[in-house]
Amino acid sequence: MTHMSRRLRSTVAVAAMLAMLAGQTLPAAAFCGFYVAKADSKLFNKSSKVVLTRDGDTTAITMASDYEGSPKEFAVVIPVPTFIERKQIGVVDMKTIDHLDAYTAPRLVEYHDEDPCNPPRIAMTRSGAVPAPMALAYGPDQVRYKGVTVEASYDVGEYDVSILSAKESDGLVNFLTDNGYRIPDGANAVLGSYVKQNMRFFVAKVNLDRMTLIGAGYLRPLQVRYDTPKFMLPLRLGTVNANGPQDLIVYALTKNGRVEAANYRTVKLPSDIDVPLYVKNDFGTFYKAMFDRAVAKEDMRAVFVEYAWDMGWCDPCAADPLSNKELVELGARWIGSDDDTPFRKFGAGAANAYVTRLHVRYDAKSFPEDLIFLETKDRSNFQGRYVLRHPFKGTASCEAGKQYRAGLPNRFRQEARNLSDVTGWSRHEIEAKMEQNGQSTRGAK
User: Fold this and answer.
1) CA-CA distance, 347 to 358, in Å (whole number)?
2) Which candidate among 83, 167, 358, 429 keeps its CA 20 to 30 Å from the CA of 270?
3) CB-CB neighbours of 321 under 10 Å
């Protein structure tokens, strides 16, 4: 991959961030099961990750780039709704975002059937609640940079950050281009729309000398915090000159409840589905196919919920809950304590934290507007969860055991239908693979 293609990929990915049925399933309130695998963000190419923390009008946005080129070529331009002071900018450890990604990832779980001749005494219930500006110098560039003001410049870790305002997009494009920010063709109109909204522009480049002194070895995620009544992500710069659709994963941390899109349809992904046992060997392929099909059904015009849950616990857990320190680092400052102990919702003095994981695949045609969000008071639990059920392997010679054995082919056929419905894969091919894996669909119907 050339430096040029790497740079273009990063420009798209970073701008994309902000300028960027089921047979015999357990009830949603009783998940449990043994965790097997997760479908984290690494499954998707050309993907960006954003942690969006909201407390009233206070917003913190943390941007994780998938940039792969030379650090000296990295640059980011992000519209922000207000002037940004140095104390509102920081860097975050990438491990913290990776932890949140793992914690919220869609997951595969498995169960093993009990002996039908010796059922457990207590059956699982099927209901119940779980629990001062600096103007540019006048001179030859006065006309070229007309209307552009550098309101502030900051050193932030390995980044040189400037806050710009502009009165027209041409001058802004000229300034950014002359200062090493690669602006894709066609960005002028999009930048112009942000100028008309009186938005500032948060721009950042890597300072190689400071990066060497810090010794991080990689570009740490940037975080910016501000107050605004607008709960939104500027998305459209990521669609300019993009090479195909982009994937954006938003991890929203709030006090009150689930986050959803206000200007696009919000859809929960298919979940709590029994799937054939062979899916265990390649859960990533299954999940990508399922997500592709869900996107196609919605004509790539929906925001998908992959996880929505109180932050203090999980069932089953794809990773341990985040610590107080990690949550505060990501902007959830209402937590109060910033120690390394795992966050807990319950108990004296506990503070609420709720996480929503949203997944968007978009291009300029399907998402012509920036994402506008709404924080609801819905605290019900949801997770992308897919279930393997292993048949009982013992003798089971009683009458109940005979009925159990006779019913397995029907159960396996339902699993094949489930898998075909959510992925679009051939049911015939699915049943053939199940046969090879000991799940024969031949028999009683």
Assistant:
1) 29
2) 429
3) 22
Adjacency order of strands within the sheet including 75-80: 75-80, 200-206, 159-165, 149-156, 134-135
Q: Is 299 in contact with 366 (CB distance < 8 Å)? A: yes
| Secondary structure class of 381 (helix, strand, coil) | coil
Among the listed residues 389, 403, 398, 401, the one whose alpha carbon sits nearest the alpha carbon of residue 439: 389
Provide the terminal-to-terminal Cα distance of the chain, rounded to the nearest Å. Answer: 54
Alpha-carbon gap, residue 219 to 225, rounded angstroms: 19
Tokens of 352: 């609420």
**What is the token pair recorded at 115?**
């002996």
What are the beta bridge partners of residue 206?
Answer: 159
Q: Rg of the chain's alpha carbons, rounded to an integer?
A: 25
Tally DSSP H helices, then E strands, for the chain.
10, 21
Helix axes 399-423, 283-297, angle to 10 degrees: 60
Q: What is the DSSP string of 123-191?
A: PPPS-------EEPPPSTHHHHTTT-EEEEEEEETTEEEEEEE-S-HHHHHHHHHHTT--PPTTHHHHH
Residues 34 and 92 sit within 8 Å (Cβ to Cβ): no
Q: What pTM did the predictor assign?
A: 0.84
Question: Could you tell me the CA-to-CA distances from 128 to 27, 28, 29, 40, 125 in Å, in that order?
Answer: 9, 10, 7, 30, 8
Q: Give pLDDT tens digits along the chain (445 positions).
A: 444 344 334 333 334 333 332 223 333 334 445 667 788 787 776 778 999 999 999 999 998 866 666 777 777 888 999 999 999 999 999 999 999 999 999 999 999 999 989 876 543 333 333 334 554 544 555 567 778 999 999 999 889 999 999 988 888 888 888 887 777 777 888 888 999 999 999 999 888 888 888 776 678 899 999 999 999 998 777 776 567 888 999 999 999 899 999 999 999 999 999 999 999 999 999 999 999 999 999 999 999 999 999 888 888 888 888 988 999 999 999 987 777 666 665 444 445 899 999 999 998 899 999 999 999 999 999 999 999 999 999 888 899 989 999 999 999 999 999 999 999 999 999 999 999 999 999 876 5
Three-state DSSP class for residue 193: helix
In the numeric block, the tokens 């950014």 are attached to 176
